[in-house]
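Lab notes, practical 5.
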Amino acid sequence: QPQFVESGGGLVQPGGSLRLSCAFSGFSLVDYAIGWFRQAPGKEREGVSCISFSGGSTNYADSVKGRFTISRDNAKKTVYLQMNSLKPEDTGVYFCARRDYFCSTQDKDFSSWGQGTQVTVSV
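Output from the prediction step:
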């Protein structure tokens, strides 16, 4: 049974940084692309970033390009999202999920969602 545990969220001031982690168990990470998504209160879930199974391809939402960096460590079964220069509009619950091999921009293409970690950017 695949399991995902997101961590690293918290309260941070605008301009600050956080590093989110998504730890996996119950399957081999090497066969899957991993996506990060977020959902703000009253809004639909949106894609933030994704990394392909090999790590050779990454993509980012326009709103986070240049500020967020996704990476993966298959040996540790963990995918990271380094978030810098955080803005209040980055506030939300951040989730990770998996998809076979390659990324997609559609959350419906992903499965095995974690419970999420709360990120709040506020003064």
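Observations recorded by the TA: The longest strand covers residues 92-100. The radius of gyration is 13 Å.
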